[in-house]
Amino acid sequence: MKLRNAFVAAAAASTLVLAGCGGGAGGGAEKAPGADGETTATSLMLNWYPYGEHAPFYYGVQEGIFAKHGIDLTINAGQGSTKTAQAAGSNQTDFGWADTAAVMSNIDKGVNVKSVGVFLQTTPSAVQVYADGPIQTTADLAGKTIAVSAGDAPTTTFPIFLERAGVPENEVQQQSLDSAGKIAAMLSGQVDGLIGFAHDQGPNIANKSGREMRYLRYSDEGLNFFSNGLIANTSTIERSPELVQAMVDATQESFEAAIANPEAAVKSMVGKDPQTPPESVLLQQWQETIPLLTTAATEGQAPGVNADEDWTNTITTLSEAGLTEVGAEPTKYWDSSFTAGKE
Predict the structure, then answer these.
(1) How far, in Å, are 55, 227, 316, 338 from residue 258 at the CA level?
(2) In sequence order, what are the residues at sequence separation of 6 or more whose Cβ sits closer than 8 angstroms to the Cβ of residue 1?
């Protein structure tokens, strides 16, 4: 199975300028964080338009965490993780926030980026259904129609999920739609459920439908792989390690602050973008994100600290699904030096 280009989702990009102006990485030229109270303009492109998972970045800007680390951060909305990875690879942004499956597949194709820390270490991939509907367990998927997005990680690993759950793949009808189309189809009753990121889509659907959601999580069947994290161009890592270290440190501190103050964190996002969900949805999205930040191997460690065994598991799972090459070493995709030794 070959990776298809469906990592690129259709959405209008928007730009949020916070605490000053930022730009790209200047073609890979050396760039350092500010010192002695000064800051350096630094840009971050998200994987999508802002939703609750991104609250730590906005909160970190509002609370001066990035500034403390010498960073004057500009946050740009994204149009899918593939575009974000490619933007980082061509130095159109200093840093990206992207899904690891898309990052790895782009690295395999020669895009010059690496992960400097995956933060969503438990996959949010899930089959999302109405709690009061006919699907109560994974076994109930047999004979039902599920909306999918061909080529993305949740869809491509769906057969592995079904196999582990003991449900024959040919007994589940898959209807391929884009992200917006999946939600519309579910709201109109055209499908029985959809596949995607439960911490993002689920709270939105619940808000729009007025119905509670049930999540059949891949991780509940023992299927796990990395999701979103921080990436940088390899030239940025080589020429500007102090900036990368400052960005990683500030991001980790911002995540810790948002975990401790979830209501304040999501409030910092309100009004920043016209596509941002209501505050109540943002809060639920962020609360659904927090349990995804660790695995059994990283419990108790700082956000973004990864374990070799989780990288190896991710590579194995995604290569089985045809999303990345077989047998690659974690170091091909991940530079661990910026989180080494952090507890």
Answers:
(1) 7, 19, 32, 21
(2) 156, 321, 322
Unique residue bearing structure tokens 């439960």: 198
Q: How confident is the model at residue 16 (pLDDT cuts 50, 70, 90)?
A: very low
Q: 125-221: which CATH topology?
A: D-Maltodextrin-Binding Protein; domain 2 (3.40.190)
List the domain boundaries for the chain.
Answer: 5-122+226-338, 125-221
Question: What percent of the chain has pLDDT above 90?
Answer: 88
- Average pLDDT over every residue of 122-129: 98
The CA distance from 249 to 267, in Å, is 23
Determine what percent of the chain falls in helix, strand and coil, rounding each to the nearest 5: 45, 15, 40
Give the residue from 94, 114, 117 showing the smallest Cα distance to 104.
Answer: 114
Place of tokens 């609250």: 55
Rg (CA), the chain: 19
Residue 242 has phi, psi (to 5 degrees) of -65, -40
CATH assignment, 5-122+226-338:
3.40.190.10
pLDDT above 50 (res 17): no
125-221 and 5-122+226-338 share a CATH fold:
yes
Residue 27 is predicted with a pLDDT of 57
State the DSSP H helix or E strand holding residue 180, giving kind and residue range, or none if neither. Answer: helix 179-187
140-191: pLDDT as tens digits: 999 999 999 998 999 999 999 999 999 999 999 999 999 899 999 999 999 9
Taking the mean position of all CA atoms in its chain, how far away is CA 80? 10
pLDDT tens column, 76-115? 999 999 999 999 999 999 999 999 999 999 999 999 999 9
CA 300 to chain centre: 21
Nearest CA to 97 out of 248, 263, 270 is that of 248
- Cα–Cα distances (Å) from 177 to 136, 150, 158, in that order, read 23, 8, 15
Tell me the two tokens of residue 100: 């690891």
